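Hi there,

I know you've been waiting on this one. I reran it after we fixed the sequence typo, so this is the corrected version. Both the input and the resulting structure follow.
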Amino acid sequence: MIGDTAVSPGGGGFDGLETPCLLLDADILQANVDRMRRHLDGLGVTLRPHLKTAKSLEVARRAMAGPAGPATVSTLREAEYFAEGGVRDMIYAVGIAPQKLDRVGAIRRRWGADLAIVLDSAAQAEAVAAWSRRSGDALPVLIEVDADGHRSGVGPRDAEALVAIGRAVADGASLRGVLLHAGDSYGLSDPAALRRAAEAERVAAVAAAEILRGAGLPCPVVSVGSTPTARYAETLAGVTEVRAGVFMIGDLFQAGVGSCTIDDIALTVLATVIGHQRDKGWIITDAGWMALSRDRGTARQAVDQGYGLACDIAGRPYPDLIVRDANQEHGIVAVRKGAAAGLPDLPVGARLRILPNHACATGAQHDRYHVVADGRLSGEVWPRINGW
């Protein structure tokens, strides 16, 4: 059943787990959610958590305001899974393709879900409006606005494009608002720069909304969101909701940006030592890139964490010990180049935990979370899904 929990072996400790596997610290997860919710409550906006990192109903229930949402998803597989689990208020926050509209409609009909879609062109808007007229289902639509030139979207002050898209949507579908994602914030690390990025995102969102309203078009929803800008926003005047996702789990990349600390990372991969190359200073584990992912995003940051940061069984990082390299099923753990730290004594069979570079990518390698609470394995297993 969707969202059911199971009991894992070795409920009192980690020895009973097959490795590599994914551990999720429920206490850290909850603390992260509570901190973000307090921050956004103080700014007077709704949190619409993005579930693309978690992909788990058990995590969603802890992150959302209520069992029905609101929530954000990045795949229609997620939308189906969460709708089956009772989530009703969702935005599919990836630009729509006409071939996906029947599937969107099926989710809305089958589960009574208020699933909104996103687009940024008149061609998309015309296709959505035509589908809505044929089906009798006026799909709710948000126009994606480009806050910083990072990816998709309409310029926030491109009145001609915004109004044309809005009017095309209104010819059968339902215009709900605007949606932004400040992707360039992921390349920052200075708090002042992150505050400026958050304010630029807000200003762009409000400008686009005002253009639509000035043309007589509805814009009740002004949706912004990235974990770094959500964390550093000082005012969200004119914004109605914030979408952020990785904040609840954290990762080394976000720690490098400054939107979390190492202690805020709830996710680790449990690995077992399977050998040594002592002359090279290597510890070999059974967690290669199939368990950790090939994401090397921290290589572009001030501190390169390799394929992940190695921790003891309690989740405490060893000094400068990283997964320096990875093959498909082998992780090569070594002291960071240039560091003075020594290699810990980890015999064959010893367990260690790896903090991930990118929680979304590492999570995608696994189908479940083994839940940690009060520093110990709780015995719960939370299913997670993958696919599109």
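Quick highlight: Confidence is low (pLDDT under 50) at residues 1-12.

Best,
R. S.
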